[in-house]
Specification:
- The chain has about 240 residues and is mostly beta strands.
- It is built from no helices and 18 strands.
- It folds into three domains: about 60 residues, no CATH class; about 90 residues, no CATH class; about 50 residues, no CATH class.
- A hairpin with a 5-residue loop joins strand 2 and strand 3.
- The chain is elongated and about 105 Å long.
- The relative contact order is 0.05.
């Protein structure tokens, strides 16, 4: 029914109204109205509000759309979004600009892995480009255990690349070398420093044994397998 409203400048279209009575509201009746402030509203007739706080509303200059009093996302304006929003599928943010057009992608795979990827191609929602990084849960290829990893996406599937925390949280490794936690005493390479509480310090050309370089067994410090005597330094 399209009635002539008894209120000035209000033009409603009623849906599922009574066909035997005028200006009545029955259960399940809806209305589409142009209101006195020139807004367009869609709501149940029994829940009509002067401030348009119920239902769907488009304001008079068509610059804002709200649902139950809350503004919906407007891609053309700056907005602050409050509350929890759940997105199904891949979520990607693509900035604009000639030199700043690489995006951020948040994805969760069907195998329950989840990652944040940095430097994504803004023109695609899968795959990878050169220099793209990722941080998140990944699967080791040798043990199939889930680890937390920071690495280049080009190194996916390579267990000896990136910074990794083991599935049990006890081991930190970098590019295949254990640098802290369980097994840290075996992770150093030549010319590096390897230290973990309770383990020897090895530093020098030969860093995998005590036969060369600078190292400590705890009580004493050695240089090229000879003990170093420590004493006071004269002023």
């Amino acid at each position: 029914m399209i009635p002539s409203s008894h209120q000035p400048y209000i033009y409603p279209l009623y849906l599922a109204c009574s066909n035997t009575a005028i200006n009545t509201v029955q259960a399940g009746q809806w209305e589409i109205s142009k209101t006195s402030d020139n807004a367009l509203t869609i709501n149940p007739s029994s829940l009509r509000k002067a401030d348009h706080s119920v239902g769907l509303s488009i304001n008079g200059d068509s610059s804002k759309i709200t649902f139950n009093g809350n503004e919906l996302v407007n891609v053309g304006t700056d907005q602050t979004i409050n509350g929890t929003k759940i997105f199904n599928g891949i979520f990607q943010v693509n900035p604009t600009g000639t030199y700043n057009n690489e995006g951020i992608r948040i994805a969760k795979a069907s195998n329950r892995l989840s990652q944040i990827q940095f430097g994504c191609d803004s023109a695609q929602y899968s795959g990878q480009i050169q220099g793209q990084w990722a941080a998140g849960i990944m699967i080791r290829q040798d043990t199939m255990a889930k680890e937390f990893v920071i690495c280049l996406t080009s190194d996916f599937g390579n267990d000896n690349k990136g910074l990794r925390i083991s599935a049990d949280g006890n081991t930190l490794s970098f590019n295949g070398s254990v640098i802290a936690g369980t097994g840290a005493s075996t992770g150093a390479s030549n010319g590096s420093v390897n230290y973990s509480a309770g383990n020897p310090i090895l530093w020098g050309v030969n860093s995998v044994g005590t036969e060369g370089g600078f190292y400590s067994d705890g009580p004493e410090i050695y240089w090229r397998a000879k003990p170093i005597t420590l004493g006071s330094v004269p002023p």
